[in-house]
Write a structure and sequence with these properties.
By secondary structure, the protein is an all-alpha fold. Helices cover about 70% and strands about 0% of the residues. It has helices at about 10-15, 15-20, 30-55, 65-70, 75-95, 100-110, 115-135, 135-160, 170-190, 205-230, 240-255, 275-295, 295-305, 310-315, 320-345, 355-365, 370-390, 395-410, 425, 430-445; strands at about 1-5, 5-10, 265, 345. It is globular and about 60 Å long.
């Protein structure tokens, strides 16, 4: 206990407001929150339009009402009521009321196997994302671009976070992947005015699309060798300088290559990067990168970051470790670029410049270094915030930098830094609620 103003204060009295609000939900597993998301999305699909019109909003808000409130401040009360009625209150109620049942289900799913539990959770997450996004095309586009941003942020965090270097080459890798996958699609499966008749039956295109993405990642990894060979022979800031030069070289090179459209860019990409495809590739990226950074090679990468000379003395091949990680990160940036080109169905060299570099770096450092969770949070939060602030036009580019500056002042390593992504811990039930649910189930049986 502590003495304050002559009175004894208990730990309960010292708890923050957030702790008191969170306390009723502390025993809710992830399964319960996913169930709440499904209920909230179901409500929006059934009564969302009616409620929006009755509140004077005219239509269902695109991004949780913030877009409408910023565009027309007079609609802020209606947008707030909409979000509370459709999203927050149903989500909280379902998560709280179902905690016993969802803990029991989470316990039994894990008892069968981690893969089954992960599959069920991912299935529920995708169902909620799909049901929320298909209400309009804009939401589908935002979700797909946000998932691609997660891939880019994770791959850059491998270099700038786990390896401890500073790379500026990710837009270049993304461009190589985007153009390689685009040329693959147009050359083999599309009757295009630039490349002529397709070399293979177009019906095979969706099935061979992963080959194009992997090819794009491979070309990006080959481009990474151009940077890695000279950069990792020395120490210091050479990687930042060489990688920045590489980004400009790739951009300028594409602008001067007429067979890929030059400065005009390339269009007519098939619509193969739909939501299920992008979602599966993002899940694969998160799983593979998370396993990579937790592997022996990932631990060696951390040792190189903390003290390269000490790691070398402990028989870690520092140069090979850094080159492997750098090529690995470039591969996933290339895959993300291929998906990006097929989501927008147009690719232009101007897209992969300083602005794209600033966006990816902001997501990495906003979310947190050395953290898979931080990369996901940074990518999702900044992408959604950027879209929600779109009605402010130029002022958006004042608010977001100020927010980043504040994060760098008060959280220099990012919001969620140095945090492992433990899938088993994420899927497991909350013990107290699970035991209560098991006891209730046994009593009911007797």
């Amino acid at each position: 206990m502590a003495v304050a103003s002559g009175k004894l204060t208990t730990p309960v009295e010292r708890r923050s407001i957030w702790s008191r609000v969170w306390a009723p939900f502390s025993q809710t597993p992830l399964l319960g929150w996913l169930a709440g998301m499904l209920v909230a999305v179901g409500l929006e699909r059934t009564i969302g339009t009616l409620l929006a019109r009755s509140l004077g909003l005219g239509k269902i808000p695109l991004l949780f009402g913030l877009d409408l409130a910023l565009d027309k401040p007079a609609l802020f009360p209606g947008a707030l009521i909409y979000v509370l009625t459709i999203y927050l209150i149903p989500l909280a109620l379902v998560a709280w009321l179902s905690r016993g049942l969802t803990n029991l289900l989470a316990h039994r799913l894990l008892a069968v196997g981690t893969w089954l539990s992960a599959g069920v959770h991912l299935g529920l997450l995708y169902t909620a994302l799909h049901a929320w996004s298909v209400i309009n095309d804009y939401r589908v586009l935002v979700v797909r671009l946000t998932l691609i941003a997660v891939m880019l942020t994770l791959s850059l965090n491998v270099v700038n976070g786990y390896m401890g270097e500073f790379s500026c080459s990710h837009p270049g890798f993304m461009a190589l992947g985007a153009y390689t996958a685009t040329v693959f699609s147009l050359l083999f499966f599309v009757d295009d005015r630039m490349y002529g008749a397709p070399l293979l039956p177009p019906a095979l295109g969706p099935f061979l699309f992963p080959v194009g993405l992997i090819l794009g990642g491979a070309v990006a990894a080959l481009g990474a060798i151009v940077i890695a060979v000279p950069s990792f022979r020395t120490r210091g800031d050479y990687l930042a300088i060489i990688s920045l030069a590489f980004m400009f070289i790739v951009k300028s090179g594409i602008e001067n290559l007429e067979f890929v459209g030059g400065p005009r860019g390339l269009g007519s990409q098939p619509d193969w990067a739909n939501l299920p495809t992008v979602f599966l590739w993002t899940v694969a990226c998160i799983w593979i990168i998370n396993n990579f950074v937790r592997s022996t090679l990932g631990k060696a990468l951390n040792a190189v970051r903390d003290d390269e000379m000490a790691a070398d003395a402990m028989t870690v091949n520092t140069r090979r470790t850094k080159m492997t990680a750098f090529l690995f990160a470039a591969f996933w940036a290339g895959v993300a670029g291929g998906l990006f080109a097929h989501v927008l169905r147009y690719v232009n060299p101007g897209t992969f410049g300083i602005q794209k570099l600033a966006e990816v770096l902001a997501m990495v450092y906003f979310g947190g270094l050395n953290s898979v969770v931080g990369s996901i949070v940074g990518a999702v939060s900044l992408n959604l915030l950027s879209e929600a602030l779109r009605p402010l036009e130029i002022f958006k580019w004042i608010i977001i930098p100020i927010l980043l500056i504040l994060v760098m002042i008060f959280r220099p390593t990012g919001l969620i830094a140095f945090t492992e992504f433990d899938v088993t811990k994420l899927l497991k039930p909350k013990d107290n609620a699970a035991k209560e649910a098991e006891g209730t189930h046994v009593t009911a049986a007797h």
